[in-house]
Model the fold of this input.
Amino acid sequence: MTAEKVKQVSMNSEIIRIRNDFPILQQNVYGKPLIYFDNAATSQKPRQVLQALSEYYSKQNANIHRGVHYLSQQASEMYEQVRVKVRDFIHARSEHEIIFTRGTTESINLVAHSFGNAFVNKGDEIIITAMEHHSNIVPWQLMCETRKAVLKVIPINDNGELLMESFNQMLSERTKLISVVHISNSLGTINPVKQIIEAAHQRSIPVMIDAAQSAIHEEINVAQLDCDFLAMSSHKMLGPTGAGVLYGKMELLEKMPPYQGGGDMIQSVSFNETTYQNPPFRFEAGTQNIADVIAFGAALDYLNALDRKDLLRHEQQLLQYAAEQVQKIDGIRIIGTAKEKASILSFIAEGVNAMDLGMYLDTQGIAVRTGHHCTEPVMDFFKIPGTIRASFLFYNTINEVDAFVSALEKGITLLNKK
Done:
């Protein structure tokens, strides 16, 4: 047996071991084994995360930062330990640059509101890209409307890649911030964020990175990227829903006003004046999502225990194989063919409604996403109403791809007869 074959067998056994950690992957749907290809929407959760969630409510449930009793002290310590874990996971300088939010969407809204109030004035410009999720469009539109600023959009080509020459021409003394998705959730494009940051910083323009998709697939190193803000979501990283992170450079966070008011973000309150805590607590008003943050910490522990480089190679193999097999089917057109691409396969089938085909795949136990994927401008660019999206994670297998392609062929044939 060749060394490559030995490695492949080893990887297969590793994937089987990993899959056994995910209870939901063991079930049947409509009498067929579940094939979960909707990982770009949310990832499944290993039993270690489920256990952490249950154990918190069973043994440590209390409000944090305020109580002197044992449970409160224990819950506070566990919660703050996760802040340190996130710091290490993304290679931030300090845990005080880590703000807990409800997810990427709230993180972007926080920056749009707070940074906008601090730094953006009439006539200033914000730059985003044409492949952004609605969560990285609408908050900037709202902010620009309030601050009377201008929103500019970096165009894309037919492969779903940014036109970097256009981007460079957009930069000016009026540009106050650039917010760009790292990996497109509808195209799979991996954007050249390092190049964007370097070009922006030559003009002292801060950059925010939407890492909702990339945090589970790529190693995130904010020190090397030198990004000014970065947002990510727990539920796309094996953790619970309703928890996420905003990373921000301390020198910016210290100048930004609070996003919300309430308990735990104050130093002192009177009817005449209120003073605020330093970051990150300034931006964490009220009772936080304590249990889910702690369970997110368990998800980070799980990810850190994996050989993520090998698993990334596995995901790339799944993507390449799936793309090759799907393209053999008559009438299939892949949407998003960038040279640098993550494990997202979006496509349309000529003459077949995407939702109908998605519903047929569901009857075969295969979960995919259909529609515009909260990226309507992308669909408008390609002049389509939406796509079928299969998104892969390291616990998926080649056998699942084969079953998916077989069901896809049958579904297209069936629906074309109607």
